[in-house]
Amino acid sequence: MTPALAHKLAVLVFVENAAGEHLLLLRAKPPNLGVWSPIGGKLETALGESPFECAARETHEETGLAVSTADLHLFAMIAEKAYEGEAHWLMFLFRCRKPIGALPPAIAEGRFGFFSREAVRSLAVPETDRSALWPIYDQYRDRFVALRADCAPGKPVRIELEEITPA
Question: Are 48 and 21 in contact (CB under 8 A)?
Fold first, then answer.
């Protein structure tokens, strides 16, 4: 049985430079302290913020890159049950179509780096990112997929496909 936990809504935004390298943030705060991940954050639900609005806001706040919702492609929605045993997450994954020109300065959440997709494979990243997030990006970044993931502690992450758009 899945425990009664808070449900959080968040976005992750995959940003690249003109060379196709991924902009990642070495997180200085939990969750994901000390590991590299795409930028993102929680939706401001009290303001009625949409996932697209949140992705554009977080991209600008964290990197300085001004993007419109038209610059963003929603490629995945993932319902994560019991992530780290702390909360349920509904995550919206975006690919930013507008490249970033330079490495942003460090922020309170951490410092940035550019990495080729191959280099990401050897970075310290959250285990769920390694086993689920990056493979989802690799396979569906130009399409759309809805997934459900059981992330209960002590068990391997189990992912189920709920919907996918045709190629």
Answer: no
